[in-house]
Amino acid sequence: MPENPNQPRDDDAVLGGKNPAPIGSVVLGGLEGVKMRLAIAPTVEQKVAALSEALKYGLAGLDLVIQALQDSSQQVCDTASSLLQKQRHPKADLALRAYRVQQLPKRYAAGERDFKKLDLYGAKLSETNLSQANLSEANLRGADLRQADLSRALVRETDLSRADLNRADLSRADLYGANLSRAKLNDANLSRANLSWANLSDANLMGANLSDVNLSNANLSDANLCGANLSSAKLSGADLSGAIYNAETRFTKGFSPKNSGAVYSN
After folding, report:
1. CATH class of residue range 113-266
2. Mean pLDDT taken over the chain
3. What is the value of pTM for the model shown?
């Protein structure tokens, strides 16, 4: 009969109770041995060593590494995260995404600001303070950022398509080349933000504050601008074809939305 790698070998010693084995003693082998060490190892170093061994046991071992993301030791969590990044397995990807979202507010509170290229797809970050954070080239597609503080943040070429940014503070944020297509920006504060070359096609900007915004060469096609404030906004080269505006929409003095392809709505 073939040997089961998840079970102890004949020459393994089986640990009884929950007391750690003395240093240098024979310990339980196989997956059960790894599980035991991750649960009761007296030192962080022993847990870290067990994590590397866990991946030898397929999906069962992968589950142990995923569970280690919730360990009380940050070193163990970081090691588990590093190992999972190399696995290229859907289960590992989902666990890492959830871990990044969980860690983001903690890292920010600890003074970290560089979150460039972070994968935060679908993240639940409503009311989160990310003021002055660097989220350039990050994946925030479909993220929940309602009432989040992104003022003065670097959000260059970031994917925010279909994100919910209702009532978010994006004042003075740098959103150059960002993808905000189909994003919800109702009543959002974008005053003095840089949105040049940004994609805002089909975005909902009802009631948004876009005063003094740089929208040069931005794509606003089919966007909803009803009630939005675009006073003093720079719109040179912007595409407003099919964008909807109403009597409450305020544009830069002298700017003709109709001549730019926008459609008036009663």
Report:
1. mainly beta
2. 91
3. 0.80
